[in-house]
Design goal:
The structure is a single chain. By secondary structure, the chain is of the alpha/beta class. The protein has 14 helices and 24 strands. It has a four-stranded mixed sheet with strand order 22-23-1-24. Strands 2-15-17-16 form a four-stranded mixed sheet. It has a four-stranded mixed sheet with strand order 4-5-3-14, with helices on one face. It starts with a strand and ends with a strand.
């Protein structure tokens, strides 16, 4: 099979309007949550990306029927008692591990492969297993699979703090299990991300009793069963942030529609200091304009509402064009720097020291052949290619397709010179 790549010809100034898709990181746990329902569910604003298609395939393996008409999905209740989430699917996407909690809660047992996904450093599942164990599950890990069972789940006060802070997927897994547990569950140090709030709102529509989502303290009172519901997935704040940075690195002028500005506080704050200009409108759209001169800025990635780790690579590409030295600290995944040597191949001056990357700018980026290591690194290399002189070949674009809907087409609409080739 021939390998596919994106070819980007730069430099170019992006200009125009782009519609932001639904949030992939919200759609995945919400799709998993449909396993809890005894009735059909309808989801709107679902992005057509590879990770969502993988989750649909997993649900179908588990006995769920999904009628697909993107951006609308209709999900019908699980039939039978199939509770095996196989390695062949879960290995490709970490988000699929969040079927563990729903399967355990509704069917009292589950066998779920340990997850895969992007190679961005250690991402253990210990918090997932700790939380479910404290709810009363018997868990063992054997030959790459998690085996979980419970005659009944009992609500409890659970602390979900980890070495690098809260965990979004662990919070989601425990919350989904707790909605069918007996009594009250308190999750302390819960993830505060908008995707957790979106999941909680969907569960509440299904009949769950949840308070405090979006804070480090979530209270859940278990119910006996959940019904069907309709729900609209929130906009993808990481896609929005990527296009904002695209405007900055190309000195462009982009209007984003279908965006939730309230989810972008830290991103907008940092990029205003860098020198980007923003205008927000009553219809919820956001205009961003890049400037000829960019100021350096030091950042540290943090759990929400801090600067997201999923925008660290893109921000690093932007800082190669700033007038001075920037220090980027990765506090979520300290090894998430595999894009550094690829950006340096294009002419960047970046030195990594442990969890820190020191970026000296401005440097003239030049087109080169580069290899994408993960989803967000792929986006960073495409953004760098837009600003670079000449042709950039970005290999392994399947990473991009995991989380960005129609990225190539959206960039072309903004004036980018980007196309696909096979090598």
């Amino acid at each position: 099979m021939r390998i596919r790549k994106y070819v980007v010809e730069g430099p170019v100034r992006l200009k125009g309007e782009v519609k932001i898709s639904g949030a992939k990181n919200s759609a995945l746990p919400i799709l998993a949550a449909t396993l809890l329902s005894t009735q059909p569910c309808t989801l709107y604003n679902v992005p057509k990306v590879r990770d969502v298609e993988t989750m649909i395939r997993l649900l179908e393996v588990l006995g769920v029927r999904v009628d697909v008409d993107f951006p609308v999905l209709r999900v019908y209740p699980k039939k039978g008692r199939r509770v095996l989430a196989p390695y062949s699917i879960v290995k490709t996407m970490r988000g699929s591990f969040c079927v563990l909690g729903p399967l355990l809660a509704r069917f009292k047992r589950a066998k779920v492969s340990l997850p895969g996904g992007c190679v961005i450093g250690v991402r253990p599942v210990d918090l997932h297993l700790k939380g479910l164990s404290e709810l009363g599950a018997q868990i063992r890990v054997e030959k790459g699979y998690v085996y979980a069972s419970a005659d009944r789940l009992q609500g409890k006060k659970i602390y979900l703090g980890g070495m690098f802070g809260s965990s979004v997927l662990a919070t989601a897994n425990v919350m989904m299990a707790a909605v069918l547990a007996e009594g009250e569950t308190i999750i302390e140090n819960a993830a505060c991300e908008p995707e957790i709030v979106d999941l909680a709102e969907f569960l509440v529509k299904m009949g769950a009793k949840i308070e405090g989502a979006g804070t480090p303290w979530i209270r859940i009172v278990g119910v006996k069963e959940l019904a069907g519901a309709e729900h609209r997935i929130i906009p993808d704040r990481i896609e929005a942030g990527s296009f904002i940075i695209a405007a900055g690195i190309t000195r462009g002028d982009i209007k984003l529609t279908g965006v939730e500005i309230g989810h972008l506080g830290a991103v907008v704050d940092v990029l205003k200091r860098v020198g980007l200009s923003f205008w927000s409108y009553k219809d919820g759209s956001l205009r961003v304009k890049g400037q000829k001169r960019l100021r350096p800025e030091n950042i540290a990635t943090l759990p929400y509402p801090g600067f997201p780790t999923d925008l660290q690579a893109q921000f690093m590409a932007l800082m190669t064009q700033s007038d001075g030295t920037s220090v980027i600290t990765e506090r979520i995944y300290p090894d998430r720097f595999m894009h550094v040597p690829e950006l340096n191949r294009m002419g960047a001056n970046i030195k990594r020291e442990g969890p820190y990357a020191v970026v000296q700018g401005p440097t003239e980026l030049k087109g080169a052949e580069v290899m994408a290591s993960d989803l967000r690194a792929s986006a960073a290399l495409v953004l760098a290619g837009l600003a670079a002189k000449g042709r950039t070949d970005v290999w392994r674009i399947y990473h991009l397709e995991r989380g960005y809907e129609n990225l190539k087409e959206k960039l072309k609409k903004l004036g980018a010179k980007i196309w696909e080739e096979k090598g």
